[in-house]
Q: What sequence folds into this?
């Protein structure tokens, strides 16, 4: 998954935070990667705001902000759809996504 993230955005920044959790960012957080006994979980910081036509998000669907992809051992993920999701998250980050504040 790390390689696919890099392919989607060669300028992505990967940092290790929160007791060894990889965090990818580009003008803001994109996603985190967590490994568990039976899955690898990729949690997108603003996943609820992203279109997911390939239906990759399969976890944390009830939240107002985050969405996650749980990948089980041996499971394959649509690489092109995943890279499109990474690019969409970056586009959301770079668009600002917030209303400008009024200065007095």
A:
């Amino acid at each position: 998954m790390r390689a696919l993230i890099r392919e989607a955005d060669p300028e992505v920044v990967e940092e290790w935070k929160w007791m060894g959790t990889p965090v990818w960012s580009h003008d803001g957080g994109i996603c985190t990667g967590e490994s568990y006994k039976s899955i690898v979980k990729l949690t997108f910081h603003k996943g609820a705001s992203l279109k997911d036509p390939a239906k990759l998000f399969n976890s944390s669907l009830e939240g107002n902000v985050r969405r996650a992809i749980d990948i089980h051992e041996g499971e394959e993920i649509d690489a092109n759809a995943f890279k499109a999701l990474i690019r969409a998250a970056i586009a959301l980050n770079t668009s600002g996504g917030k209303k400008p504040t009024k200065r007095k």
About this structure: The longest helix spans residues 79-94. The chain has two helices and five strands.
